Amino acid sequence: MSNDLSIDLWTDLVCPFCYIGEARLQHALKEEGVTAEIHIRSFELDPGIKEPVSSIDRLVQSKGMPREDVERMEGQLKEMAEGEGLTYSTDRLMGTTVPVHLLAQYANRQSLETGEKFFREIQAAYFAGEINPFDDGELVDFAERCGLDRDGAAGALKDRELLNVVRGDQQIAHKLAVSGVPYILLNKKLAIPGAVAPERFRDAIRQAVAL
User: Helix, strand, or coil here: 54?
Assistant: First the structure.
C-alpha cells in the first residue's frame, strides 16, 4: 500500500524547534488520516562546535545573549515541548552532530522508515537527557538498542560514503536556500519552514495531498 505523501525532512539532533516541529507534523498527519514516507535529511546547525559543552553555555556564546535570556528561552521551549507530549531537559550537552547524522544515513540505507524511527528515538532520548550522543560508544549502544547492527553502526561512524551523503543533503539544502531547520518538503513541492503552528501543518498536508 502506497503512502499519501513523501516528506523530505531536514533536521538536526540538537535543534529544539526540530524536536517540536516533528511532533507537530506527526500529530497533524494522524489527525488528517494521512500516511507519509519521511526521508530524514542531514543539516548541521552548529558545524563549528568541536567539544561537547553545556547547551546554555554554547547558546550564550554563539548567540551573544545574556544567560538569563537563554534560560528564559529554554523554559519557554520546555513548555512548548511538553504541550506536544514531549520530555524536555534544559540541562543538555551540545557537540558535533555529524556522528548522529552518519548513523541516521546508515539507518536510511536499511529503509527510510528505519532512518526516521532511529532519528526520532535518539532525538527524544537526547532531549530527555537519557543519552550523551557525543560519545561514540554510547551512540553505538543506542543504535543497537534501536535494532541496528552494532558492527554496522560502528563502521558507519567512519564511512566516507555516508559522510558524502550527509554533505550532499546539506548542499541540497543550500540550493533550496534553507538557512534553518526544521525544513519540511511535501511531495517535493510544498515547503513548511520551521516549527509552525499545528493548524499550518494540517493546512499544508491537506494542500499537498490535493496537488
Answer: strand
